[in-house]
Each structure stands twice: as C-alpha cells, then as structure tokens.
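User: Could you check the structure of this?
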Amino acid sequence: MTEASLAFSDPDQILLLFGTHDRYLRQVREAVGVDVTIRGDEIRLHGTDEQIKRGLAVFAELRAILEKRGELLDAEVQGVLGLGGNGRPTNGAPEETIDLLEKARHVAPRTHGQAEYVRAIRENDLVFCVGPAGSGKTYLAVAMAVNALRQEQVKKIVLVRPAVEAGERLGFLPGDLLAKVNPFLRPLLDAMNEMLDFEQVKRYMERDVVEIVPLAFMRGRTLNNTFIILDEGQNTTVTQMKMFLTRLGNGSRIVVTGDVTQTDLPPNVTSGLIDAIDRLADVEGIAHVRLTGRDIVRHRLVKEIVKAYEVEPGRRTTRRKV
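Assistant: Sure, the predicted structure tokens are below.
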C-alpha cells in the first residue's frame, strides 16, 4: 500500500471535484480502486502503485477541466474515467464488467457480442439491440440501468413493455388493468430481482425510483435523468415506437431490445423496431447492436431450439427413430 498527494490552491475546488454528496469521488473510487482522503488543501490517495498512478491521472484531468470551465458535468467525469481506467473494476473482473454496487455483486458479459452491447450502452444515449431469446438483451440492459442509478448518473429507471397479446386475450385475464398487464412486465422485474435484494427493489418501486409500465402509459410523458428500457420492441407499431423514442429527456438514456423473429403483430403491421433501425441507421449517437445464437447464455438446449426454428420447414430432415 502506497500513498500520494495532489495539492490545490483553492480548497473549494476539491468540493467541486468530488461533486454533490461526493458522487464523483465514489465513481472514481469504484473505477480506479483507490482510496481518497482530504488533508487541508490537498487530497491523498492510498492504494497500490498502479491504482495511485491511475488515480493521479484521473484527478489531474478532472482538475484541468475545472480550471478551464469552473464546473464538472457527469458526461465529462465519465469520459475521463473511460480514458483513465474506463470505469472498470481493477480486481480482475472481466472487461466491460457491470458493477451493481450491491454487496460486491457484478454482472459480466459472457460473449464478445455481449461485451460490445455493454460498451455501446456506455457510449451512447440510444441503443437498439436485436437478438434471439437467451442472448442477454434484457438482462444486461437492466444491469446497466442499475449501475447508472447506483452511481447517480440517473435518478430513475423506467422499464417498459408493449402489452401485445400472443395468442391470448387480456380481457380474459383476472383482475384490474395492472393485474392484467403484470404478466407482460414480469420478465423485467425478474431481471432486477436477480441483481438487487428484494427489499431494495420494493423500496425503489414504492418511492417511484423504479417504474415498470406498459408502453401505452408512456404517452404524453417526458423523462429527464432517467434510464429507460423498452423490452420486446419488435411488438411495437411504427407509431408507438415514434411515441416512445420522443419521451427521451435531458440526461436520459434509452435501450430498446427485441427479437425480430418473434413478432406478435398482425401480418400486415410493420414492426416499429425494424422500422426505427432502418430510419435511424445513420444518426450519430445512436448505436445498433445485433446479437446472434453465439451469444445465447441460457440452457444449452435454448441455442439448439433457436437454431432449429431458423430452418425453413421444407428443409428439415427427420432424424427421429420410430
């Protein structure tokens, strides 16, 4: 364990450097792994030689921004961390690991495609991700939303799904409207419950920090400082997708996921996800990620099932022995 210090001519600059309620300090600690204390007009860093070296580089760059502009923005801090450590844990966790800040829990991409997906979410405000069942589209998006919330990059998480009937009718389900749409929204909540303690998720929902809503309930809203996930995006119409994407407010991010091979819309209705990917293909700041069967991380049979359904009926060969 070694120590180094960085002196400031104005102690108030240290407060700006650390951010409101030390939010930027916590981000640096998590990204670099260095411990930081204040002694008068200087900050002292404690850690390994590598952590100290990276920590000094990060704080020096943040101080340069402060001296030039007089303030720090979230995007600037994230950018510096991306250059001086990339915001990744230094404890040997895999590249692009997502720190949930919950009892040292981490979520790590398990394939190259998933790592590219996580990187796209980190670097863009709007990401479209299409891929087969079991490829981690929803799970990784929820993990990134939890990470952004716990690091105070956003104030709220909104999880959205279109309540499209796949062979069933909502009217025949028991209960009021919320009870009827609950089965459609349950996969998003299940993903979050795997990452956080049940009581924590319950508190978030009671305080409206986490909101799980049907797509139809998004009309007329503008969401600022919010991480928004639209799951099953292939089941939106073009009009619905336009409505949803225009909810994006200042400081917010959107991730849209879907499997274009499992559209439950009527045959004559164009999928809003497919349409949006085509329309927005060349817009800067929007990322498009396509996961494949190689990215499936569920049970081994899921990969085989997906592969089997990709074969045209007339080209199947029967191997079953009678």
